[in-house]
Amino acid sequence: MCGIVGYIGEKNCVNILVEGLKRLEYRGYDSSGIAVIYRNSLKIFKKAGKIIQMESSLPDNLNSKIGIAHTRWATHGEANDINAHPHLSQNNKFSIVHNGIIENYSVLKKKLEAEGYKFKTQTDSEVIAYLIEKNYKDDFEEAFYKALEKLEGAYGIVALCEDNPDFLMVARKGSPLILGVGNDEMFVASDVSAFLGHTKQVVYLDDYEITKIEKNNFKIKDFRLSDIARDVKLLDLDTSASDKGDYSHFMLKEIFEQPESIKRAFAGRLIENFGTAKLGGLNLTPQDLFQIERVGIYACGTSYHAGLVGSYILEELARISAYVEISSEARYKNPLIEKGTIFFAISQSGETADTLFAMREAQRKGAKVLGICNVVVSTIARESNGGVYVHSGPEIAVASTKAFTSQITVLFLYALLMGRMRDVSLQTGKKLINELKMLPEKIQTILNSVDKIDEIAVKYSKLNNYLFLGRGISYPVALEGALKLKEISYRHSEGIAAGEIKHGPIALVDEETPVIFIVPQDNTYDKTISNIEEVKARKGKIISVCFENDQKVKALSDDYIEIPETNSFLSPLLTVIPLQLFAYYTARALGCDIDKPRNLAKSVTVE
Ligand code: G6P
Q1: Among candidates 521, 560, 520, which has minimal Cα distance to 544?
Q2: What is the pLDDT of residue 605?
Q3: pLDDT digits (tens, 9 = 90+) for 399-411
Q4: Is 600 in the pocket of ligand 1 (CB under 6 A)?
Q5: Which residue among 303, 389, 392 has the greatest number of ligand 1 atoms within 8 angstroms of its CB, and so is best to mutate?
Q6: Spatial distance between the Cα atoms of 55 and 33, rounded to a whole number of angstroms
Q7: CA–CA separation, 509 vs 519, rounded Å?
Q8: Among 233, 279, 406, 486, which is most buried by a count of CB atoms within 10 Å?
């Protein structure tokens, strides 16, 4: 979603800003722009479309030591040049970039219009620049504070003033911002990747904080304007993961990383001789764990599907009741927080606004919420009451793949830990651990058969509607398979619990409908076979994902993708791989922009 980069220092910042924006491209955007002070005057360049279009509109001699930049993902007002950020105040003296949503912008706009201000854009963000102008009486800092007092909603803001080329003003409330501290230079961005090439010294800002940044200094205040001391931290990140290497797309690279990323998710977390797991980050003693009667999970998108898989494992393996809620639903329904319930907020980015707010709402009511995040020191990771990092490494493609399998791995470890405190025997625990350890190799076997998956995807790629069917633990896998396909190929696809097909969706089936069945040999196997027969009788095209020895399913299918056998609790970690690849190759056959699908954002920081 929207990205912010700001710079102040000794270098010409034009390239730094543009390169920073390119590093944020993966988040999803539809326009971009920069504002700099050139020869004492504020200059703005912004364009709809790709960053390269904005970049090619920049004059060759453009030169500045201070600037702000933005990639916009449209919420208020269409994606065009005018609505792109940065925005200017009416007198052209102030410029701002904003992530988030100003909820009271129309009231503010009307008031300002009544005072004679004329707005140029349809955005909610423009009012911020106008409010700064209105409150300016030769003190930019003061005017910035006053403008903030009027704003309701969520924001990360960076503001620049033509008359004050020595500092930038920054505010955070609900939308992440991080400072990068260099030598005689300072960066600010919504994501560290924007400035990682320049410095690894960072300062995380929290919500309700305002910062003035100069090239050698930063001063943080809370919203009551009291000073806050904050240490500079050294980031320990491997930047090589942000490189595509020999792969044509980040998505394919990330799919292929799964044997390793899964290993990282369980490495150091197994206690093999006790057939159990240890998850130190939970900050829970065995006595605390013993008190847990229920697990609640909040998540969105792919993370929600991982949560659903986790709920099946928790109930069946650990015999602990578990429910999953879509964060955007949970946060507004006055959630019931019962004693004895532990919550998980699952989020790859750790910044998804809905999940963050659902977590805060549960915490406000007294619940303990643990994070399952990928991005280290993200907001959810920092604000949760403990948690587990999935260690997938940077996930750049918008469509999440390796984070999904790592999230399931972590949920499996938690279920094993809880299960071993309840019904699961030492022997079963050990068997499950052995099986888990074999998964990376089994995933590799599936990855070795990509050519066949590519062929099948191409064969059906002219068709418009796809159904994904599974039962039990394979139902959330069906949801995830359908989500992957629609996200990147724009084909209509639905994930359906196979048992539900005759209650409506079977009406969609005809000879032009590929129906993808996920059929591991578990307790739902025979029932799923009956569903295959039902679809076959209506001339649907059957594509199945089944175990390699499964002659019965193979005989029923028009096409099949085989996977190695595994335990039913772990089968989603294998069955989802062909579906990720199927989506990838379908999108490739259709010539889609796979890593940056239309209208989507990697990290959804607005509700
Ligand atoms: C966006 C992304 C999805 C992702 C979802 C949740 O919609 O496009 O790929 O699954 O957000 O993101 P999170 O970072 O919270 O896992």
Answers
A1: 560
A2: 80
A3: 999 999 999 999 9
A4: yes
A5: 303
A6: 8
A7: 19
A8: 406
Specify whether 602 is catalytic. yes
- Cα(408) to ligand 1 centroid in Å equals 15
Rounded to the nearest whole angstrom, what is the distance from the C-alpha of residue 602 to the centroid of ligand 1? 6
- Residue that is written with structure tokens 């499950």 in the block: 432
- pLDDT tens track for 188-213: 999 888 998 899 999 999 999 999 99
The tokens for 505 are 């969706």
Cβ proximity of 99 and 4 under 8 Å? yes
Which residue has the CA at smallest separation from atom 7 of ligand 1? 301
In this prediction the pTM is 0.82
Which residues lie closer than 8 Å to 216 by C-beta, 6 or more apart?
Answer: 184, 186
**Smallest Cα–Cα separation from 65: which of 232, 218, 214?**
214
Nearest C-alpha neighbor of 55 from the set 14, 104, 108, 84: 14
Q: Are 209 and 171 in contact (CB under 8 A)?
A: yes
Q: Is 326 in the pocket of ligand 1 (CB under 6 A)?
A: no
Question: What are the phi and psi torsion angles at 476 (to 5°)?
Answer: -60, -25
**Between the CA of residue 291 and those of 320, 335, 370, 386, what are the distances in Å?**
11, 21, 15, 17
Domains and CATH numbers, the chain: 3-237 (3.60.20.10), 240-447 (3.40.50.10490), 449-607 (3.40.50.10490)
Three-class secondary structure of residue 63 per DSSP? coil
Atom of ligand 1 nearest to the CA of 299: 15
* DSSP codes, 4-57: EEEEEESS-HHHHHHHHHHHHGGG--SEEEEEEEETTEEEEEEEES-HHHHHTT
Distance between CA 225 and CA 293 in Å, rounded? 43
